[in-house]
Amino acid sequence: MALTRSSAVPSGTSAPPFSLPGTDGRIYTLDSFKNGKALLVVFMCNHCPYVLAWIDRIVAVALEYAPQGLQTVGINANDPVSYPDDSFPKMKEFARERKFPFPYLFDESQGVASAYGAACTPDLFVFDAARKLAYHGRVDDNHESPSLVKSRDLDHAIAAVLAGRPVPAPQEPSMGCNIKWKR
Questions:
Q1: Structurally, what CATH architecture does the domain formed by 32-178 represent?
Q2: Among residues 6, 31, 52, 127, which one has the fewest Cβ atoms lying within 10 Å of its Cβ?
Q3: Cβ neighbours of residue 57 under 8 Å, at least 6 residues apart?
Q4: In terms of DSSP H, where are the helices of the chain?
Q5: Contacts (Cβ under 8 Å, ≥6 apart) of 144
Q6: Rounded to whole angstroms, how far apart are CA atoms 53 and 87?
Q7: How do strand 38-43 and strand 70-76 relate by DSSP bridges?
Q8: Is the pLDDT of residue 168 over 90?
Q9: 88/72 Cα distance (integer angstroms)
């Protein structure tokens, strides 16, 4: 497992469009999330130890802020040929087991991950109501021990966006396993 950090994507960048299948059998596009005051896009997968460490916190944030207008989507871009644990059937199992309150989409071509500049799992992007990037960074400062977290970066970013305030700097990069690009 090689630790990878996300590279900076400029604030204000527009959310790239997409059309991807979800584990629930539906096709989702960026417009599927047009009614939210904020949109959290999480590039993730099923097997990464960093995703597994943070997924319950990501789900909790999605549930906490949904009533205030946050929409959330998970996207898996890992190569399922080299990493069968990240196949679409396994995604369905993972979403069901974890009771995702958001769609979990498969980016088989990896074009969406590339368009967003995603580098690792989890890699988190928070967009405002105009779908301009407001936050690109980590969940918090401690993937190993939730009880030792001192900085809830994602929480603070979403609260700021929903309140119409800028997200405070600095934004610490996401960190996790690298996206498993096709060879």
A1: 3-Layer(aba) Sandwich (3.40)
A2: 31
A3: 139, 140, 146, 154
A4: 49-65, 88-98, 111-116, 153-162
A5: 53
A6: 20
A7: parallel
A8: no
A9: 19
Report the alpha-carbon distance of residue 50 to residue 33 in Å, rounded.
26
Host H or E run for residue 129 = none
Q: How does pLDDT run across 56-103, given as a tens digit for each residue?
A: 999 999 999 999 999 999 999 999 999 999 999 999 999 999 999 999
- pLDDT score at 8: 72
CA distance 161 to 129: 9
Listed by start position, the domains of the chain span 32-178
Digit-coded pLDDT (tens) for 122-163: 999 999 999 999 999 999 988 888 889 898 999 999 999 999
User: Whole-angstrom Cα distance, residue 6 to residue 38?
Assistant: 21
* Whole-number Å distance between alpha carbons of 79 and 101: 24
For residue 32, give the DSSP letter: G
User: Tokens 């989409």 belong to which residue?
Assistant: 105
Report residue 1's pLDDT band, with 50, 70 and 90 as the boundaries.
Answer: low
